[in-house]
Fold:
Amino acid sequence: MTFGILAIIVCAGLGGPLLSLIRGSLVPVVVGELAAGVVVGKTGFGWVNPAEPATAFLSSVGFAMLMFSAGMHVPIRQPGIGRGLRHGVVAAVIVALCSVPGGIGIAAILGGGHAAIYALLLAGGSAAILLPVIEELGLLGDERVLVVMAQVAVADVAAIVALPLVMQPSKAGRAALGGLAVAAAALAIFAVAYVVRRHPAVHRLQKASKKHIWALDLRLSLLALFVLAWLAVRSGTSILIAGFSVGLVVAVIGGPKRLSTQVTGIAAGFFVPLFFVTLGAKLDIRAVVEKPSILELSVLLVVANVAVHIVGALLTRQQLPAALAATAQLGLPAGVVTLGLQEHVITSAQGGAVLIAALVTIGLCPAGIALLTRTRAEGAAVSRAPAPAKP
Structure:
């Protein structure tokens, strides 16, 4: 790793915002970051070697920051989330049950294994994608949206917890124990933070931090993140659980608004784009294009994802656009590809196919929310329409 390579990575990361600006808001930033990584990495010019130790370590930090940010975006403290939780849990369970035959079917069609991985990809969700779209459209008070939000939050957490076990079945016992150790450490951090957060000394420190720009909340959050990441590595589980756990702790306890801004700055400003650029650099997109079976995997994942979520929506009496809104995925596919390549469970071509499918679902999410908004507006217009005059 040199400053020149770091400059190339940062420059490549700018491809995300530029693509979103040129093509409109429906193009997620991550699309440009992955595409730029493909150009500077294995498929393209080969300027960035993601296997180089310093680059690989910074990418791991970016992955931990991505999971941290995803955990922070789980809408645990969102007003009204409890109203939709019951239906959301039922929908998430239905989708998970339907994902099992879906994953088996995809594996059978492709003539290979990975059925459990495919099933997990179908069952997951991404609160980090869904929540900003809902907030931007001002739909946080809509009961139908709250059900979708609860469903995605439950699916997101469950899939993240299950991922290391699915990706490393031969190490399932050690991974499970490591996950429990990380979860216990996260609970201990939560207990300490919950007890001391109202102490006058803590309030004085927070005020001093705000006045002198010490960013103590961010420093302590990063300390917790890196300690849990170290514990995860030492105990044989994934840093994915460490990042997500710390994010959940912050989401439950809450914090000053500046903490969210600071995390966004350090994560979205550097580490997460670096992660996606280096992830794109690992992928073999030529193989995705040249091998129809690999491209077929992307199509099957998207079709099956939409299908299982439609079943979940119908059985819980949700509108069909809600199914599209719930399909969005980001952290889970990135985790599947990252761990899969590390453990040599999937090829770089298969990883490219998984990420292509994920990017399609990211586009389906705002389309589903927009359709929900349209049906809401149409319903309101009908209710305001004057009743026909009696003869």
User: Anything to note?
Assistant: The radius of gyration is 21 Å. Residues 80-253+284-374 form one domain.
